[in-house]
Amino acid sequence: MTRAAERASPRFQLHCPMTEPPLRILIVDQNVTRASILEDGLREAGYTDVTVVRDMQNLMRRIVDADPDVICIDLENPNRDVLEQMFQVSRLVRRPVCMFVDKSDTASMEAAVDAGVGTYVVDGLKKERIKPLIEMTMSRFKAFDRLREELDRTKQQLEDRKLVDKAKGILMKERGLTEEQAYSLMRKAAMNENVRLGQIAQSIITASRLLK
Amino acid sequence: MSSSPLILGFVPLLDCATVVAAHELGFARAEGLELTLVRENSWANIRDRVIVGHFDAAHMLGPMAVASGLGISHMTVPMIAAMSLGLGGNAITVSKALWRDMAAHGATLGATAAVQGAALCNAIRARAARGLAPLTFAMVYPFSAHNYELRYWLAACGIDPDVDVRLTVIPPPFLVDALREGQVDGFCVGAPWSSLAVEAGVGTIVLPTTAIWRLSPEKVLGCRADWAQTHTAELAALIRATTRAAAWCDDANNHAELAKLLAEPRYVGVSADILQRTLAGTLRLSPESDATRVSDYLCFARHGANFPWKSHALWFYSQMVRWKQVEPSKERADIARSTFRPDIYRDAVRSLGIDVPLADAKIERTTEAITDAKGEVVFGAEGFFDGKVFDPENVDDYVGEAAQQLNET
Fold it and tell me: Which of A90, B20, B119, B380 could join B106 in a cystine, given CB atoms 3.0 to 4.6 angstroms apart?
């Protein structure tokens, strides 16, 4: 069944009112038995929008197509490293990852939840435990992602400010402008070309180095 | 010493041998340590379980320890490499089809990295001219020596690893099938997986990576920096036990026993015969060829293999910068440098009476080819096949020149 058809089905309407779309879950596992145990556990816990990927080829494509809210993978599955690489390469496919392990060592696994590493366990896939864990995975991921974005942004701003100061100095020296004039000249150029001020500054620095 | 056992994670590869031997041959016990070894199937699991404290230490990719401190793999958790678990041991293997193609462009079994690279470069250009899809190469993890060695070789031969080929991650146990099914055209992986592809009749070893960078760094004994601080005695004992185990693993007289041990399913779990040959550095390069000996293919202890050189950490960092995994900064270079801890290693092994370098870092020099008495070419020094020199004090220039190299070709 296609995703659209699935969403239009009566079962979907029954379980998920329009105000709260169901979580889309992608299970990555080549082991058929294991994947179906996980799938059944999730469905019993009330998650109806579950896709299983067994074929590791074009995994990236499959993630993009399925556009899951969360990816579930067995902790024993070596393909975890494949996901790592994909998240490294593309932010587009980065998703919270929920990991299941059928081990009794739950106490120490829960330490992982607190540490925020995104390692989770459902011991024997007890359905009452799946839901809170999935939800926690998502909220952890979102918090972490937000933090990372903020950090990236701050870094960029800091980087830009350094470049702008340097470019300002070049313009002041080469064209005899005041600091204010140099700044507004760059700002105008940035607006005209629809790029960041930092990019204009970088062009000025590069050009001045080449013209030396 | 602590009464509870130390828990160590490892990944089933030949170079987990030192950790396994430390446990199985009694080297740990002699230091008053009990070890529990836990086999893991993915590097991400190793990292996570060290971070949350399930593992006290682990058989870890050298670059992984660096990446963790830099916060570029997942979260920022300072880790240290207390010692190196060996040098070399990787190889680049291609499918039969690609090998035929490369051979048509001048590649021969056992040829140098420059010859094989030129053949691959010409094969790739010919494919592009015919409008064929780019080749796909696999490695095992984005922050790994495998990734950087493969990229280094490709780039040095005029192949842009981010443009001219596709690079992907495939876990070692799936590589042989991936090659057979044409999912990938080649891969760079640790022993014994290249040999398994040859045995299965689906791959040809183009290069042991020792032909790209002789005596190159690989796995480390990694742990969290704060754990190292609060467990100095245990860590020192673990370093001594592992160092003595490494010397045992390096001794050819022990290879039969070691291979048998590693062949057990709870460790590497592949045929003892292949493991033993690989331990001796004896590789069959193609399904049709006889075995050849690759000198210093994998060094557990000799050539100072256990010393955690800061220059190795900085080389990994230089590659992270080169391949845009991290923006360069002085602060980040310092973090990378401080990940590898020759000071801790030196202090720990003092009582063993082994030779330990006094310097923390060294200049990684070029390979010098020497012809021996039998007329065979052997490589006299460690270093890179393309003659480049890595000066750890000059990472920026090194990366800058490397970028230039691709622009020129």
Answer: B119
CATH (one of 3.40.50.300, 2.40.50.140, 3.40.190.10, 3.40.630.30) for B4-86+216-270+302-352: 3.40.190.10
A56 touching B (Cβ < 8 Å): yes
The Cα–Cα gap between B302 and B247 comes to: 8
Across the interface, whether the CB atoms of A78 and B325 are under 8 A apart is answered no
Q: How confident is the model at residue A151 (pLDDT cuts 50, 70, 90)?
A: confident
Interface ipTM: 0.73
- Taking a contact as any Cβ pair under 8 Å apart, which residues of chain B between 363 and 392 contact chain A? none
Cα A13 to its chain centre, rounded Å, is: 28
pTM attached to this predicted model:
0.79
- Top CATH class of B90-215+288-293 equals alpha beta
CA torsion sign for B40, B45, B47, B50 is negative
CA-closest candidate to residue B197, choices B222, B170, B220: B170
A127-175 and A179-193 helices cross at what angle (nearest 10)? Answer: 130
Mean pLDDT computed over A78-102: 72
d(CA B89, CA B209): 7
Chain B: closest CA distance from residue A112 (Å): 6
